[in-house]
Amino acid sequence: MLILSLLILVLAAACVLAVRGVRADARAEEEQLNVPDALFAPESLEGVLCTQLLDGEITRRQYLRSMAGIAARDEERHPLVVPFHED
User: Fold this and answer.
1) d(CA 87, CA 82)
2) Distances (CA, A) of 13 to 3, 7, 16, 40, 52
3) Whole-angstrom Cα distance, residue 66 to residue 52?
4) SS3 category, 18
5) CA dihedral of residues 12, 16, 19, 25 (deg, nearest 10)
6) Whole-prediction pTM value?
7) Distance in angstroms (rounded) separating the CA atoms of residues 8 and 12
8) What integer pLDDT is reported at residue 9 of this predicted model?
9) With left for phi above 0 and alpha for psi between -120 and 50, is residue 58 left, alpha or beta?
10) Quick one: pLDDT at residue 6?
11) Residue 26: its pLDDT value, please?
12) What is the DSSP string of 38-54?
């Protein structure tokens, strides 16, 4: 009977220690990571416009006008040339 009681106490202590370790791991995971804001910064003019639109700094009409200007400027600088194939 004494051996059975000791075995139960040892198993209970092992369970308590296991739960305590899991809780410590969970607390360590809850700590926030320090991520620099530059990692999420837009890298293109289109990205800047999207960010401004989503933040409410510009209206949809201003966004569309700006994107049309970017497309026109891109067409002027790098025109699309389609090769001609004769059959």
Assistant:
1) 16
2) 15, 10, 5, 47, 57
3) 12
4) helix
5) -150
6) 0.49
7) 6
8) 81
9) beta
10) 80
11) 58
12) GGGS--SHHHHHHHHHH
Contact (Cβ atoms closer than 8 angstroms) between residue 53 and residue 42: no
The one-digit pLDDT tens for each residue of the chain (87 residues) are 788 888 888 888 777 767 776 565 556 566 666 767 766 777 888 989 998 999 999 999 999 999 999 999 999 998 888 888 876
Q: What is the DSSP string of 8-28?
A: HHHHHHHHHHHHHHHHHHHHH
Long-range contacts of 68-74 (CB under 8 A, 24+ apart): 70/45, 70/46
User: Looking up tokens 């067409």, which residue turns up?
Assistant: 75
Considering just the CA atoms, what is the radius of gyration of the chain in Å? 31
How much is the pLDDT for 57? 93
For 16, half-sphere exposure in the C-beta direction (CA atoms, 13 angstrom radius) is 6
